[in-house]
Amino acid sequence: MTIFIVAAFTVTYLGMAAGRFPGLQLDRTGIALLAAVALLAAGALPLDQVAKAIDFPTLAILFGLMILSAQFAAAGFYDWCASRIAASVGSPVRLLALTVAAAGALSAILANDIVVFAMTPLICSGVRARRLDVRPFLAGLAGASNAGSAATLIGNPQNILIGQVGHLDFWRFALVCTPPAVVALLLTFVVVLRCWRVELRATPGETTQPVTPFDRYQLAKAVVATAILIGLFATPMPREIAALVVAAGLLVSRRLTTREMVGAVDWHLILLFACLFLVNAALARTGLPAELLASADVAGLLPDRLTVLTSFAVLASNTIGNVPAVVMLLSLWPAAPPGALYGLAVLSTLAGNLLLVGSVANLIVAERAAMAGLRFGFADHARAGVPMAVISLAVAVAWFGIGGWLPWR
Questions:
Q1: Is 28 domain-assigned?
Q2: Is residue 407 one of the residues assigned to a domain?
Q3: Fewer CB within 10 A of the terminal residue: the chain, N end or C end?
Q4: What are the angstrom distances between the C-alpha of 301 and each of 48, 292, 297, 405?
Q5: Using CA atoms, how far apart are residues 39 and 115, in angstroms rounded to an integer?
Q6: CA distance linking residue 237 with residue 245, whole number of Å
Q7: Whole-prediction pTM value?
Q8: Any domain includes 17
Q9: What is the spatial distance between Cα 142 and Cα 377, in angstroms, rounded to a whole number?
Q10: Domains in the chain: how many in total?
Q11: Which of 339, 310, 348 shows the shortest CA–CA distance to 403?
Q12: CA–CA dist 144, 101 (Å, integer)
């Protein structure tokens, strides 16, 4: 049975790295689902252990934040931001600065994947209408969404999981992680400006594309809900309950149907999380992860120091992806110290800027651009993504090392 479990685990994470199986229309969620079903069918994970294996509080927070983001989307806020940027008077450099600032700020308080999903099409159409090269703006959008999301426990899925497993304080996390995230956001602008300097010297044409209006009432409702959620995070109420309370409040609406709001939830991501929890729980039952952890401790290879953690973040985020990588590491190492968790959150997120496959946000930008008839390929992303990731990671490593949150080696 152990051999079967290890094989299922290996195939799952090879699938996470490849993105899909050759010849099949199975994406990462489908691969993880098939592996989980196979393990359950083989008795590798008893049915009465399924509920214990899945971290339902993490999924509850994800659900609540997706409902909150759906409220912003229903208000037309994302569309308004993107169209306002594209219609802004000024040079391409100013448009890039607005793109980076908006994407970074929104991603710090809302799921970055949803931010780029909503903003990419209008950025594409608006910038193209100005007769400008869209690629530097897409690079800025992807890089800023990753950088901004590193600042808080609710900026991206992996941070949510890290906060739940480590029982991290929301405000303490923000205090530690916001500075390197802000620097990374500034570096995103500078690096894209430098790497795409020729394209950004073009003279923008005038645009007749109107700014998309937003629903003031629905936006006010979303802003109030966000303020309530952040306020509840400062209370003893569990974060997952706070997220569900806010989500339930938003579902009470005279204009937006429950089907519309719940339909905006990224159920594929939630299912991916649940299946990865099951696959990793089955592996944990073999005792191999505990043995591996003990061996790593003896060899001095635990990721509780910057050299090991940074190497893991860069390699894992750009192969299997930062979300599966964090799920796997925390299943192997559930008692990680707070400093290591802060570092894991920031480093795994910033490492996602290195390659196009490094984060889901990058892939969403590329896919949404393709749907708009524009190409934003691997080389286009790497042109700014590689220096952006390398420099921002160096800054983050220095921050955590000098601040004493993690030893250097």
A1: yes
A2: no
A3: C
A4: 34, 10, 6, 17
A5: 35
A6: 11
A7: 0.88
A8: yes
A9: 13
A10: 1
A11: 339
A12: 7
The continuous run of DSSP H or E covering 164 comes out as helix 157-166
CA–CA separation, 356 vs 379, rounded Å? 8
Q: Is residue 302 part of a domain?
A: yes
Cα distances from 269 to residues 162, 173, 298, 382, in angstroms, run: 16, 24, 36, 25
| Token representation of residue 222 | 């979303």
> Which of the 8 DSSP states describes residue 96?
H
Q: Which two tokens stand for residue 48?
A: 């009465």
Reading the block at residue 173, the tokens are 């996390």
pLDDT per residue rounded down to tens, the chain (409 residues): 888 998 998 888 888 777 777 778 888 889 999 999 999 999 988 888 888 889 899 899 989 998 998 999 889 888 888 778 777 767 889 989 999 999 999 999 887 888 888 889 888 888 888 888 999 999 999 999 999 999 999 999 899 999 998 999 999 999 999 999 999 999 999 999 999 999 888 777 666 667 778 889 999 999 999 999 999 988 889 999 999 999 999 999 888 899 999 998 889 889 988 998 999 889 888 888 878 778 877 777 788 899 999 999 998 888 888 888 898 888 888 888 999 999 999 999 999 999 988 888 898 898 889 888 888 988 999 999 999 999 999 999 999 999 999 888 7
The token duo for 155 is: 């900026």
Determine the structural domain holding residue 151 and report its residue range: 2-402
- Separation of alpha carbons 31 and 16, rounded Å: 8
